[in-house]
Amino acid sequence: MVEVIAFGNPVYDEIITPVVRTNGRVLSGCSTNACLALGRLGRTTALVGRVGPDYADQFQSDLIRYGITPFVERASQTGGFKLVYDSRGDRTLDILGVAEPITMVPDMVATAAAVVVGPILQEMSLELIHTIRTRTQAPIFLDPQGLLRRIGADGRIEHFLPVEFAAIAPLCHVIKANEVEAKVITGVDPRNDPVLAARRLRETGCAIAIVTIAEAGSQIDDGDRSIAIPAFPTDARDPTGAGDTYMAGFLHAYLADPSDLFRAGCTGAATASIWIEYTGPDAPITLAEVERRTALLVQQNR
User: Fold this and answer.
1) Collapsed DSSP state (helix, strand, coil) of residue 220
2) What confidence tens digit (pLDDT) does each residue in 12-47 have?
């Protein structure tokens, strides 16, 4: 049985940071990275998305190798970005390819323990998310990054708040946004007021809101509590996918114990800290190392 089914187009990205550069394009994507991390934490996963003929064979081979069940729709081309980071960690995203919107909702969504909705660039409509919601009782974990992106006049990614977000948010149990996304949604800069940013995000209609703030950690709000989560100190070589794998770690711990949001947040931080020490999909995340780092965060901060 697949425990977690994730919706979102995979991408093959070129990544350049001050310390690493990929050799060509590598497998990535919000839902893809979440599945990769969840699999290494012992969860069974499936991924729903579109790929083009340019990467179709490689994608099928990659998912088999990583133990992810694929539900693939054919696209005219595979999505991807060229990501260039500066010394502060700010990045530009140039388009390498765009795949069409997802239309498939596999029957196994009805038996999954959790659903991840992690679009990369406008491939998930309100109607599709509503269909998912009607076909499962499982909690939906939303990473809104792809809902808030569009291609600007210069061909680069820019952020905006679509009007349908107000209808999407209440369909989701957890929404996790990074600092840029949280500011777009709420108008509050999490660097200045993480508590208010998380509260405003939760007030969009979800049960639990998470705002990640890179090295400053993250903030969780469930309506009763606002919980500060520390980041795990590490040497970040490539921040691509940090939020995706935070979500994976949080989801893994939340399924085990929904009442302990502090530990779930620390598990998210621990998982992401391993991922960003490497680049590409082969980061050596193990359950033992995630649990070790989680225990350190809990002991030092609770």
Assistant:
1) strand
2) 989 888 888 888 899 999 999 999 999 999 999 999
> CA-to-CA distance for 173 and 239, rounded, in angstroms?
26
pLDDT per residue as tens digits for the range 79-93: 999 888 887 777 888
What are the residues whose beta carbons fall under 8 Å from the beta carbon of 163, sequence distance 6 or more? Answer: none
Q: Could you give the C-alpha distances from 104 to 45, 130, 141, in angstroms and in order?
A: 16, 13, 18
Residue among 203, 182, 210 at smallest CA distance from 190: 182
Whole-prediction pTM: 0.95
Who's near 35: CB < 8 A, 6+ residues apart?
Answer: 4, 6, 45, 46, 47, 66, 68, 116, 248
Contact 97, 77 (CB under 8 A): yes
What CA–CA distances, in Å, run from 94 to 50, 84, 147, 203, 236? Answer: 19, 9, 17, 32, 22
Strands (E), 143-274: 149-151, 157-159, 174-178, 208-212, 218-221, 226-229
Cα distances (Å, whole numbers) of residue 36 to 50, 151, 222, 230, 283: 17, 27, 27, 23, 9
Q: What is the rounded distance in angstroms from the CA atom of residue 258 to the CA atom of residue 264?
A: 8
The answer to whether the CB of 146 falls within 8 A of the CB of 153 is no
